[in-house]
Design brief:
It is a single chain. By secondary structure, the chain is an alpha/beta fold. Helices cover 32% and strands 27% of the residues. The chain folds into two domains: 147 residues, Rossmann fold (3-Layer(aba) Sandwich), CATH 3.40.50; 63 residues, no CATH class. The protein is built from eight helices and nine strands. The strands form two sheets. The protein has a six-stranded mixed beta sheet. Strands 2-1-4 form a three-stranded antiparallel beta sheet, with helices on one face. The chain is globular, with a radius of gyration of 18 Å.
Length: 226
């Protein structure tokens, strides 16, 4: 579970995240929606301990991320799929991640198989990967510790339609097994098929939240003629 309470981040006179509160529950996929610059990435960075909040708090599994023992075994994080060492191979990236959190080499093979990267692709340098392949590698790194929670920033970016369909199935299965998924996007069409709940953010504030059905039913205009 992820619990965000009155979370804010200010940079001087600019407020990037403004007093947001919401919960992402186990067994569900929560879509974190908003246009570019709405504050989604900053909020996720605060949830995962990379950016200190100005006020409020974010708890993952009941603790601040930095207080989790070996957090990679509890929370899988992918905030920027392009932030991978271009000179390493895909297998080397996953091997380093596995050693960092203390899981065996068999987790590397399972991770590659889970995201559909072949041995040949895993042996290539990351600099030669397409954006979609980097997304798959980033997902493999997030999943390698068999976490209970996933925090994913724009995971569909760079994936082709087949890849998006595959990703939806992967994340839906993770949630159906009791995991918590929080994924951001600026496109409703990317998440409405898979998400159970939506949190919509604009100008750093939560402007709407609820189940997908309840929010989508509110859209549009009804006209009655005499």
């Amino acid at each position: 579970m992820i619990t965000v309470s009155h979370l804010s981040k200010r940079y001087g006179d600019f407020t990037a995240v403004d007093d947001i509160t919401f919960t992402a529950r186990p067994g569900s996929v929560t879509g974190f929606l908003g246009p570019n610059g709405a504050g989604k990435s900053t909020a996720m960075r605060m949830m995962t301990g990379l950016t200190p909040p100005s006020s409020g708090e974010a708890l993952v599994l009941g603790r601040r991320y930095r207080d989790l023992p070996n957090p990679g075994r509890h929370v899988g994080v992918m905030l920027d799929a392009s932030a991978q060492h271009p000179g390493r191979t895909g297998r080397e990236v996953l091997t380093l991640a596995a050693r960092t959190i203390g899981v065996g080499s068999d987790a590397v093979d399972r991770g590659l198989a889970t995201v559909g990267l072949t041995d040949k692709e895993a042996g290539r340098r990351v600099r030669n990967y397409s954006l979609g392949m980097r997304q798959r590698l980033g997902l493999a790194a997030a999943l390698i510790g068999d976490p209970q929670v996933l925090v994913l920033d724009e995971p569909a970016n760079g994936l082709d339609p087949q890849g998006i369909h595959w990703m939806r199935g992967l994340l839906r299965g993770f949630a159906d097994r009791g995991g918590t998924v929080l994924l951001s996007s600026h496109l409703l069409s990317e998440v409405q098929i898979i998400a159970d709940e939506l949190v919509i953010i604009g100008h750093g504030r939560v402007v709407a939240e609820g189940t997908v059905d309840s929010l989508l039913q509110q859209q549009g205009t009804r006209v009655r003629s005499v």
